[in-house]
Write a sequence for this structure.
């Protein structure tokens, strides 16, 4: 490919040149190139429902790390475990405890600097539930009923709960509690963020201007697909655990899963064509995300691969290079529960200091 074409393709993919501004409400971004405006509040959460997988890492948590490294000093960075959300699909208390502490270890192991970012547990702040209630009075049940995640999560459940239905309202409360301006998430959260902006607008209209409408920040690798069925997203809850690569897995486990990853019978070349070659394209997308290269650059790097083994060995090599350090750090941190508890305790206190001031303002506006 001519250099000019490659530059254009790169720009189109990363949209790295677009500066964030207050009118863009959903944008692809590259935190290394893009400017986050001064005095922004960046906020995101992850559910402690199992180990982090490659989708969580590339779609969300690595972006959190980049933001802690590259956002201006005047920005607030707040990241949490969404443990209140995690119980919308009931789990034993011991699992919740274990997953919460593993989630903190994973966030730190991915390189998020706890001295720069607040890292906390959602359930430690009663203000989340308070704002949730206020926002729930503004949320239309018809709108909630259209949420695709609610539909897919409630499918097959005998008795799906009010909590699962109202889940996106709590998510909006999480974000607005800190008057967040930017929310880095994967593709599957776009619809929830739209609801959040609608609720912020309704609150502003009814009770006076309080919230800026938060921008959704999508990483270039906003959607990593299942290795076994590349038409679905990679997910912690996939019944086929060969579909998902976790960031603490050994190189042997990863090699086994990549070997079983669905591709196709063409081995003369490996190119990105999501419609006709979804499996191969997903693996190329993973490489491109990890290496922060455009799809075209990756295609050019692998242009002389002529068999599946060479291609898949390369995928394993790239994944292992990236997660070696997080994997090592995770194993170390997860043994050290005192250290993890101390970090969360500090994070809970810092988060509460902001939330308790904000909730007073919101309640006063409502008339309490
Ligand atoms: P969850 O595990 O559902 O709590 O997701 C935590 C974060 O990871 C959210 O920002 C999701 O959008 C993101 N995420 C989850 N699965 C994927 C995926 N397969 N590809 C990209 N991002 C994902
Ligand atoms: N719903 C999100 C997910 O499943 C997790 C989440 C809860 C979240 N509260 C949030 C993400 C607030 C961003 C902002 O991934």
């Amino acid at each position: 490919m001519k250099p000019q074409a490659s530059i254009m393709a790169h720009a189109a993919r990363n949209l790295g040149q677009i500066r964030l501004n207050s009118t863009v409400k959903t944008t692809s971004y590259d935190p290394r190139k893009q400017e986050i405006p001064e005095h922004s509040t960046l906020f995101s959460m992850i559910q402690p429902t199992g180990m982090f997988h490659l989708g969580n890492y590339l779609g969300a948590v690595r972006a959190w790390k980049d933001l802690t490294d590259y956002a201006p000093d005047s920005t607030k960075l707040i990241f949490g475990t969404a443990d209140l959300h995690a119980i919308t699909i009931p789990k034993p208390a011991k699992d919740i405890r274990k997953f919460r502490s593993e989630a903190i270890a994973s966030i730190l192991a991915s390189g998020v600097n706890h001295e720069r970012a607040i890292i906390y547990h959602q359930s430690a702040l009663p203000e989340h539930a308070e704002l949730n209630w206020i926002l729930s009075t503004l949320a239309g049940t018809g709108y909630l009923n259209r949420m695709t995640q609610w539909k897919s999560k409630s499918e097959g459940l005998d008795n799906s709960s009010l909590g699962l239905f109202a889940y996106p309202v709590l998510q909006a409360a999480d974000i607005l509690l800190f008057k967040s301006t930017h929310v880095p998430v994967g593709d599957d959260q776009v619809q929830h963020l739209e609801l959040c902006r609608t609720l912020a607008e309704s609150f502003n209209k009814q009770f006076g201007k309080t919230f800026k409408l938060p921008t959704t920040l999508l990483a270039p690798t906003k959607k990593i697909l299942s290795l076994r069925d590349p038409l679905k997203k990679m997910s912690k809850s996939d019944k086929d655990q060969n579909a998902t690569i976790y960031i603490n897995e050994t190189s042997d486990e990863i090699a086994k899963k990549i070997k079983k990853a669905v591709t196709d019978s063409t081995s003369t070349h490996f190119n990105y064509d999501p419609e006709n070659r979804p499996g191969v394209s997903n693996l190329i997308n993973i490489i491109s995300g990890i290496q922060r290269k455009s799809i075209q650059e990756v295609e050019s790097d692998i242009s002389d691969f002529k068999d599946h083994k060479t291609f898949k060995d390369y995928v394993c090599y790239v994944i292992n290079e990236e997660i070696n350090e997080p994997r090592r750090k995770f194993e170390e941190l997860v043994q050290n529960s005192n250290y993890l508890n101390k970090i969360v305790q500090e994070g809970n206190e810092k988060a509460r200091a902001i939330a308790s001031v904000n909730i007073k303002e919101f309640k006063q506006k409502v008339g309490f």
Q: What stands out?
A: The chain has two domains: 16-223+336-366, 241-332.
